[in-house]
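Submission sheet (multi-component)
Chains listed below:
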Amino acid sequence: MANPRGSDVCNGSLHNHKEQRDNLKTENCTKNGIVQEIQQNEESQCHYKPLVESFEEAPLHVMVFTYMGYGVGTLFGYFRDFLRSSGIEKCNAAVEREEQKNFVPLYQNFENFYTRNLYMRIRDNWNRPICSAPGAQFDVLERVSDDYNWTFRFTGRVIKDVINMGSYNFLGLASEYDESMRTVKEVLEEYGTGVASTRQEMGTLDKHKELEDLVAKFLNVEAAMVFGMGFATNSMNIPALVGKGCLILSDELNHASLVLGARLSGATIRVFKHNNMQNLEKLLRDAIVYGQPRIRRAWRKILILVEGIYSMEGSIVNLPQIVALKKKYKAYLYMDEAHSIGAVGPTGRGVVEFFGMDPRDVDVLMGTFTKSFGSSGGYIAGRKDLVDYLRVHSHSAVYATSMSPPVAEQIIRSMKFIMGLDGTTQGLQRVQQLAKNTRYFRQRLNKMGFIIYGNEESPVVPLLLYMPAKVAAFARHLLNRKIAVVVVGFPATPLAEARTRFCVSAAHTQEMLDKVLEALDEMGELLQLKYSRKKNSACPELYDETNFELND
Amino acid sequence: MDFRHVKNYLSWLYYQYQIISCCAVLEPWEQSMFNTILLTIFAMVVYTAYVFIPIHVRLAWEFFSKICGYHSTISS
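Outcome: structure written.
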C-alpha cells in the first residue's frame, strides 16, 4: 500500500517540476541536436510521425472455419471426458483419491476442459527444451511422445543449428562466451555469483551503483534503480506508487505483470481500448468530473499504464498523444519498455527516442534487461525523488534478493557496447542492422500475402494463423525444417486469433532471413495461410476518428 | 502421369479438410469415427435428396400452375 505521506511528497514535487517546466517553456530544449517544441494541449498538432499500423481482419470464411474447428474439438472433448469418467479409458489428469470422493471437489473439471482436451493434443509445440545459448542459431533437444502428449521422453539426439525466430534476442547479445564478455568473467571471479541479501540490508554492491548510473545516463534521466527480476519490478513497484483512492487507467492489452501490480495496489482500475486515445480521453474526463465512485471526492492520483511495444500485437504506443493528454489532465504516466528498450529508436534508447520526445515527459520509465541486453532484471528510471522514494518503499528493495554481480556486469558491458563507450561503433551498427532486418522481414511477409499485425518498425512480428490445427501443423513443419518459432493460442490471445510471433534479431544474417522466408512461403501454400486481401500495397490505416466524443 | 497429379491434388485436398476441421490433431481412431459419421450424414442427405426432391418439385409445379390456371379462368 502506498504511504499517504509519500504520495503527498510525490504530488508536491510534481507541482514544483511543472513550475520549472513552465519557466523553461520559452527556451528550446535540445537533445541530440533535435530542437523540441513543448506542446501543451493541441493533440492534433503533435509532431509525431504517422503510425503505420495495421490490424487487418480475416475473411469471413476463415472465422467460420476457426469456430467450426473449435466446435469439433469441443465435441470430441466432451466425448473423451465421458469415456474417461465412465472408466472406459484411463484418466491421465489429476483426480481425487477414492476416499475423498464425497468431499468438496478439489479439481474443477470444467475449468481444465480446454487444457485437457485441446491443449494436450498439441502440447509438443511448447516448452521445448534447448541445450545451447539462445543466439541466432541454437540446439534443440529432440523429444517424442508415445501416448499423445501426456508424457514425453527424450530420444537423446539433439537437433543442431536450428534458426531461432522465437527468443527475445533483439541485438544478438545473448550468445555464448566470447572475448567481449571478459569483464563478466573477471567480475565472476571477484564477486562470486550470489549476493545473499536484499538491497536494503547488505545487498547493494558498487556494481549496482555503477549500473544504475549507467542506466540513468543511457536513458537521459536523473536516476534509476535496478531490480533482480523484470516481472517483479512491475508487480512490486506499482503498489508502492499508488494505493487506495487512486485511479489506474491501463491499456486493454497490458502484460500480466502490470495487471498484477495494479491489482495488488488496491487502486481502482479502468481499462481503455488498445491504443485508443479518444477512449482514454473520455475516461480521463469522466474521472476528473465525477471523482471517486461513491464519495465523489477527487482522485488522489491518476496513473496511466502503457507499454512501449505490446508483445502480442507488435504495436507501438501512441506516445505523443498520451503525453499531451497527461499534461492536459494532470495525470502520471508509467511506461513499460520491456520490448522496446534497445530495439527501437535511432540509437536504441526506446520509444521515447523513437518519437523524438523528452524523457522527462514520462514520469516513470520502466524496462527490463532480458530482451535486448542478454541478461535478466528490470529497472525503474525517472526523477531522483521518485527513485529515492522507491529505494525506501518498494517491496522488491525490502524483500527480494538483489541482482547477481555477473548479471549486472553483463548489462553494464551491453549498455556500454550499445552506447559506444567501449570505443567501437558496433553497438550502433547492431541497432541499425536490427531496424534493417525488421523492415526487410515485414516487407517481404506483407508482399507474400500473410496477415501481419503491428507497426512496421516493431521487431516483434505476429503472423495470424487462426485455426488450431494449423497452429500445430505450422510449428511441427517448421521444426522439421530446422526453424524454431513460438506459436501462441488461447488464452494468451483471443480465441479465434491464434498466431505465431517472430522476434527479428540483429544477429540474423540475410541468408537466415531468406531461408525462413522461403520456408514460410512454402508453409503458406501448403496450409493456405495467405489470407491478406491487400497483397501489394502497404497503405497505412487511417485512425478511425468518428467516435470522437468531445463536445465542447 | 495425370493419375499421379490427380492423386496429389486429392491428398492435398484431404489434408486441407483435416486441417480445417481439426481432424489433424485428433487420434487416428477419433479421425476414423469423425469421418464415418460425416460420410454417413452426407450419404443420408444425398439419399433424401434423391428420393424426395423430384416429388417436391412436381408438387410445387402443380401448386403454382393451379394458381396461374385459377387466374386465367378468372380473367377469361
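Remark: Chain A has a mean pLDDT of 85.
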